[in-house]
Protein: Membrane protein
Amino acid sequence: MIEIAWSNFTPWSALLGGILVGIAAASFLLLNGRIAGISGILGGLLAPAKGDIAWRLAFLLGLIGAPAVWVLATELPPIEIEAGYPALIIAGLLVGIGWGIAGFCPGPGLVALGAGEIKAAVFVAAMVAGMGIFEVIERSRAKA
Structure:
């Protein structure tokens, strides 16, 4: 049985945040013809094409500056990570390897799925299957 921490259940902020991210991703795709993937935008600064630096820096500065603007309205939520460093390192490596193989990280994979890319459908299906496998393993560990 899944336990829900109702004190952490914030559907209205999740809804508003999801709408804002969705509008931003769709706008980026419609106006620039690009998927708003942070790793791709940052990676493009390593060997930028001519005229390709300003928009990348503007995007990243907006991303970094958003928490500073948020603090003007309210306090930032506390950051709580219960996993240890080995688990975080392994998770990061798996995401990086998966991204390198598939060409998507989770967020842009979902955006590409929404844009109708077949490759993204396969990626998202495999990602959801992996999440399901993880959940089964975690539940069996919790029972033991």
